[in-house]
Amino acid sequence: MSFLPPDPSSARDARSRRPARLDALDEPEDAAVVVRDLAVELPSDERPYAAPIQAVRDLSFTVPAGQVTAIVGTNGAGKTTTLRALSGAVPFSDGSIEVLGTSLGPATVGLPDGVAIVPDAPAYPARWTARHVARAYSSTARHFDRARFDAYLVEHRVPAGRSVGGLSRGQLTRLAVAAALAHDPRLLILDEPLARLDPLARTGMVDNLRALMAREDRTILLSTHDLDGMDRFVDHLVVVAHGQNVLEGDVETLREEFLLLEQASAETGADGESIASPLIGAVTTGGTTRALVHLEEAAGLPPGADLRRPGLSDLVTHWLRAATVSRRPTPREDAA
Predict the structure, then answer these.
(1) Is 324 exposed, middle or buried (0-12, 13-18, 19+ CB in 10 A)?
(2) Does the N terminus or the C terminus of the chain have fewer Cβ atoms within 10 A?
(3) Nearest Cα to 194, choosing from 230, 238, 248?
(4) For residue 292, what are the β-bridge partners?
């Protein structure tokens, strides 16, 4: 597990209990994906001749094999760009990527066998139907389970005879997921797979992903900004802000590492500065301050503070708030 300090003022206190560099972390021996010091530059859409935008910078994280890893951040945090770099859809200017034991270069085309990807906006020819999709994959992929593909379409009510151009965005996502699962992938990469689904379809998709994970040697990496109902599904968490990793670790370990504080703002101060313990992502609404606090700092809290184990959404929300408000130094700057 790794984390950066919630704000620059607490950086010195936090150094004693965290590694100075994210890339100095021990990597699990059975990692499915290892990303180190990744940098991706994208051209500016509004100013074609302007300097490229640094969409991702010095990003490092690991995806443990056999687990579900969620990479989480606000819109524009670099999640989709990172997954596109993993898939080879965009080149990266610096760093390294290793997928299922294969090192990918900045200009690598194609991924090792056993990887399936569902992009945020699946692109099939508008006149194609699900049957065309199945025929295309059956003729090019080494393994494509047509029966499984058809069964998924029926279960999730995707009309196999309707053109792709006539499908809703949710149906299009479910079509892409059906094609990915039919490949029986060792590593499944999904970009915002739940964003366009209604609650019933969302539950059904998570159930299907659980079924995939019930098999041995299966790994899921998904990006999302909505973790509702995902506490018992996600094993490993990566929180990204401004193109950088601000928090990473095993979810259960993180939930034990931090506490969620709820306290009357008169006792904590509106910004939490009146107490000895540094608060992470403090916010005050309705006279109550809510924030995360490191377990080791709990002794400095006021008597009677309401403390409990945070949920997955609590961890993400408060760390993103801390990163957005403070604009903390980068990992390299902090280590200097």
Answers:
(1) middle
(2) C
(3) 230
(4) 260, 280
Q: Give the Å distances, CA to CA, from 279 to 8, 17, 22, 328.
A: 12, 16, 22, 14
* Percentage of residues of the chain with pLDDT beyond 90: 43
- The answer, as to whether pTM is greater than 0.85, is no
Cβ atoms of residues 128 and 121 within 8 Å: no
What's the rounded Cα separation, in Å, for the pair 304 and 9?
26
> What's the Cα-to-Cα distance from 296 to each of 19, 262, 300, rounded to whole Å?
16, 17, 9
Q: Name every residue whose Cβ is closer than 8 Å to that of residue 276 and which is 6 or more positions away in sequence.
A: 297, 300, 301
Lowest mean pLDDT among 122-126, 137-141, 282-286: 137-141
Structure confidence at residue 215 (pLDDT): 78
Q: Which of 292, 219, 223, 305 is nearest to 260 (CA)?
A: 292
Residue type, 281: G
Q: In the sheet where 53-64 sits, what is the strand order?
A: 53-64, 31-42, 94-99, 102-104
**How far, in Å, CA of 137 to CA of 184, rounded?**
13
